Amino acid sequence: MAEIPKDLKRHLFERNPMLCLWMNGILTYLGFAFMVIGIVSDAMNKVLGLEPTNWFIMAVGFWMLGIFAWFRGYYSAKEGVD
Q: Across-strand partners of 48?
């Protein structure tokens, strides 16, 4: 089978490391925002769109996505992909 050219391989299989790290920051801040909404909703004993537990679950999910984006950006940068 033919070898995939390096520039095409980069476009098919790798991500831009700076984009991944930028997404890490956005997902982390969204996770904090969801956590604050969950705390405020629980303290007021009101439902702000979702139940407080759901806001906490969304916060954890966004933090996990942020960690995944950070690892993806780190290993892409380590491989030398720009």
A: 50
Residue 9 lies inside a defined structural domain of this protein: no
Q: How confident is the model at residue 73 (pLDDT cuts 50, 70, 90)?
A: confident
- How many domains does one find in the chain? 1
Q: Which residue has the tokens 């996990």?
A: 64
CB count within 10 Å of CB 39 equals: 14
pTM: 0.73
The one-letter code for the residue type at 61 is: G
Nearest to 55 by CA among 29, 80, 28, 35: 35
Domain enclosing residue 41, as ranges: 14-79
In a domain, 35, yes or no: yes
State the Cα–Cα distance between residues 43 and 31, nearest whole angstrom.
18
Residue 49 has pLDDT above 70, yes or no: yes
User: Is the residue at 49 inside a domain?
Assistant: yes
Nearest to 53 by CA among 33, 32, 39: 39
